[in-house]
Structure formats: structure tokens, C-alpha cells
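Ops channel
N.P.: pipeline sanity check, posting one input/output pair.
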């Protein structure tokens, strides 16, 4: 048998056993909330007097706040298949309260004592009992687990542990079921209590995900609710995809139109610039003779530049540019013939 440490004082610890009884042992470095295997523990009691003394000592210790701390819910955990169960869990993650939300849940809890058990063990035992009663027969089932706590981060961690516990249980029993777990707000607990047959997890799915009135779904199984939710999620996803495609097509169309407008504007600007250049050229009159001379000079300069850039012409160019050689050298003329004397003419 296991027991949970409730209080520690003066070297002794008060423990609550699974059967609901309270015992006293030496603390042995125990901490409040620790779980002890009672097979390995010696209970301090010496006859009837010793037992009475132990009970009196524990009563004093627990009156200091131990019982109140243990019995105070820190979390609310709901389990839904079709049976809906709500469990109150203390800071040590022990079940201190349990409620059946509908008639199916009452059948599950019949002769199933979950109080004072670790919440993970309680979830596993409840899932096993649901399976024995045939709620997973036929099509694949759904298990919904919701955890509520003052600290949302801690509630989320607890929900993750409970999901693992449920998945391990259905795997061991060969059950085909999808387990969904998460943390929800405390207001879901309060709202669900106002509707008969409703749990906080089920209420959250109906109101926040389906957007429906929870009263209309009080007798609907979580399997059917999850089917409706999955269908609505698929429809919304399809609508979002179609909208995204439409937006993309509009962006492409707008981009093409913007590009056409830009090219048109650029073309108009080019034409305007060309017209302006023509007008400026028309305003400047250049005499024909001057124009011809300018053109000739330009052609001559261009030819000289091309010639100077040709390979093998560098030395010739330098020679032409040396002092004393201003231009191309002239060819020597033919020598004049000597005059023949008169007396030797024939």
C-alpha cells in the first residue's frame, strides 16, 4: 500500500494511506507530497496506548493545515468518452474529489475507487473501465482530457502527462482511439457545472471550437462532437485555402497591370523627351556650309584616331610628330639635264 506525506513536524511525518487512514512515521528526509511504499515503512505505534498517542500527535499536526492543504483542489481534470467524469486534484496530484457528469459515468465509477489515487493512475484505471464496458467497440473512439489550474503552465504540463497515461493504457489494451488533451480556463469549469451532463472539456470544445450552444450538446457523445469539429475544421481550412488562392491570383493580376502601366508611362516619357529634343534642334539653325565643314573635320579626326590606334603605326606617328618633320616628307625631284654647248650640238 502507498501513502502520501501530508505534514512533517519534529522529525515525524503524517501520511494518508490509499485506504483513507492516517499513520505516523519518522520523516527520514521526506517532503510534503512524497509518496511512500508502506511495505518498506515501520509505523510508529506501541500497543493501544501508542496508537492513541500517535493519533493524537497526528491530529495536532494536521490541525496546523495539513488536512486542509491535502483536501484543497489545485486542479480540475475532466475525462470524456461518452461517460463524462470530473476529478478534483490537489497540489500533490492526488484525486480528492470525483463527480459523474452523466449516467454512463456513474456506471464507470461503480465500484471503482479513484479517490486518493495519483491522477495518472486514476486516468488509466478509468480508461480501462470504459474499455471493459464496451465504449470503444466498433469505430475508432475519442478520449478528451482537459486540465484546469491557477497556473496555466502547470495545467498544460499535467494535461501532457495525462495524455501519455491514457495513450499507454489504450495501447496496452489494443484500443483504437484518439487522445486529445490540453489546458483550459477555470471559467469553463464554472460554466460546465451549470449544465447537467456537461464537463469542462466538453464545454470548451462546443463553445470555443464549434461556436455552438453547449445546452444543445449535453447528451451528445464526445465522438460525435469531435467528428463535427473535424468536419468544420476541414471546411474552414478549405475556405481559407480557396481565399488564399484567390488573393494570390489577384496579386498576380495586379502586378501585371502595374507592369503594363509602368511600361506605358515609360514609353510616354520617352516620346516626350524625343519630342523635346526635336524642338530644341529645330530652334538652332546651322548654316549648310558650316555644317559641311564641321562634318568633314569630324570625319578627318575620326580617321586619324582610327589610324593611330592600328598596330604598327606607332613609330610612324611619332616620326610625323617630331620637330622638323611637321608632315609627310616630299619626294626628291628629278635632276636637271646639263645644257649642251652650241658647238657640240649636231
Amino acid at each position: 500500500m502507498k501513502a502520501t506525506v501530508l505534514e512533517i513536524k519534529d522529525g515525524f511525518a503524517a501520511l494518508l494511506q490509499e485506504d483513507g487512514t492516517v499513520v505516523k512515521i519518522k520523516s527520514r528526509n521526506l517532503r510534503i507530497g512524497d509518496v511512500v511504499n508502506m511495505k518498506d515503512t515501520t509505523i510508529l505505534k506501541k500497543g493501544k496506548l501508542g496508537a492513541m498517542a500517535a493519533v493524537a500527535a497526528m491530529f495536532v499536526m494536521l490541525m496546523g493545515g495539513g488536512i486542509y492543504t491535502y483536501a484543497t483542489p489545485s486542479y480540475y481534470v475532466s475525462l470524456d468518452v461518452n461517460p463524462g467524469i470530473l476529478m478534483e486534484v490537489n497540489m500533490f496530484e492526488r484525486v480528492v474529489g470525483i463527480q459523474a457528469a452523466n449516467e454512463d459515468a456513474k456506471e464507470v465509477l461503480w465500484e471503482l475507487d479513484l479517490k486518493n489515487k495519483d491522477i495518472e493512475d486514476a486516468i488509466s484505471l478509468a480508461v480501462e473501465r470504459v474499455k471493459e464496458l464496451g465504449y470503444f467497440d466498433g469505430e475508432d473512439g475519442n478520449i478528451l482530457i482537459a486540465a484546469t489550474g491557477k497556473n496555466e503552465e502547470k495545467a498544460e504540463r499535467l494535461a501532457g502527462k495525462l495524455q501519455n497515461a491514457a495513450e499507454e493504457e489504450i495501447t496496452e489494451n489494443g484500443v483504437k482511439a484518439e487522445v486529445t488533451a490540453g489546458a483550459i480556463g477555470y471559467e469553463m469549469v464554472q460554466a460546465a457545472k451549470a449544465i447537467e451532463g456537461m464537463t469542462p472539456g466538453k464545454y470548451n470544445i462546443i463553445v470555443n471550437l464549434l461556436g455552438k450552444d453547449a445546452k444543445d450538446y449535453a447528451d451528445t457523445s464526445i465522438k460525435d462532437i469531435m467528428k463535427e469539429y473535424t468536419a468544420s475544421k476541414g471546411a474552414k481550412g478549405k475556405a481559407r485555402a480557396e481565399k488564399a488562392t484567390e488573393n494570390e491570383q489577384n496579386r498576380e493580376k495586379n502586378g501585371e497591370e502595374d507592369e503594363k502601366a509602368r511600361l506605358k508611362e515609360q514609353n510616354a516619357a520617352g516620346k516626350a523627351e524625343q519630342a523635346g529634343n526635336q524642338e530644341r534642334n529645330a530652334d538652332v539653325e546651322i548654316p549648310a556650309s558650316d555644317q559641311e565643314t564641321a562634318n568633314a573635320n569630324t570625319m578627318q579626326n575620326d580617321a586619324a584616331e582610327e589610324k593611330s590606334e592600328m598596330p604598327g603605326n606607332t613609330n610612324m606617328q611619332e616620326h610625323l610628330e617630331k620637330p622638323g618633320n611637321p608632315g609627310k616628307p616630299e619626294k626628291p625631284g628629278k635632276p636637271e639635264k646639263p645644257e649642251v654647248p652650241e658647238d657640240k650640238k649636231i
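N.P.: looks fine end to end. Strands lie at 2-9, 12-17, 22-26, 35-37, 75-80, 84-89, 95-100, 141-149, 177-183.
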